[in-house]
Amino acid sequence: MQLCKLQLESGEVRVGIVADDHTQLLSGVQSLSDILHSDDPAAVASDLLDEDAQKLPFEDVTLLPPINEQEVWAAGVTYKRSQEARERESEGAARYYDLVYSAPRPELFFKANPHRVVGPGGRVHIRRDSKWSVPEPELALLISPQLRIVGYTIGNDMSARDIEGENPLYLPQAKVHDNCCALGPVITLADDMPPLDRVRINLTIERSRATVFQGVTSLSSMARPLNDLVNWLGRETSFPHGVILLTGTGIVPPDNFALAVGDHIAIEITGIGRLTNWVAHRG
Length: 283
Description:
By secondary structure, the protein is α+β, with helices and mostly antiparallel strands. The chain contains seven helices and 19 strands. The strands form three sheets. Strands 1, 2, 3, 4, 5, 6, 7, 8, 11, 12, 14 and 17 form a twelve-stranded mixed beta sheet that branches. Strands 9-19-18-15-16 form a five-stranded mixed beta sheet, with no helix packed on it. A hairpin with a 5-residue loop joins β1 (about 1-5) and β2 (about 15-20).
């Protein structure tokens, strides 16, 4: 089962069940979290399905980022490709990226609060003081307050590689700013996700309608189990509203590539769908 958060033409925000290229609204529910944090999200959603409601084509609604009050956190250096790229961009700190790739403790950092997250079709920002920014396509985990993985969506962790490479202590500035994260288009409930070792992630970047970068990876290339990341995240930190965790990227464009305003980013993940966004500057 897949769920989505959407806005009707009237401006009303609703929750729906996704089927093919349309959605059917749920009644009597205030938020996605009310369903996701229940004991049986699929059963709750089925019970709330409004059988009399019209099936709405996606083109007639606006899909919103599937987030309520959760913080967004991220894991880094979970793929070998990411380790190699981080070592190249930050020669002085290269050994630390090598160590964290194989260390028991993962790299975990705060990424965004909800107002810095955009949804499908939204504009992700590159910093004006960065000349080397890239998208990072990632599997995103929807985690309940009890630290259960209840669903999956697509995440884009926008990153200023030159700022982080200058000094690892600049990581918050390289990673956290307005429109620094995209999520969507839907949530696939945990029980309905394909076997994770068969999940592929694809990234396509277009500029003036021409493809300027394509990359692909698979979750089988990830160095850490997902539950291990969740356990470390919740070791000393509570999340009363739940949390969304980006799990790292295995796709890194070449060092001579940087995003430009107007670029179109498309991320596809097996079992979830396709998240697209445009690149812009703040303001």
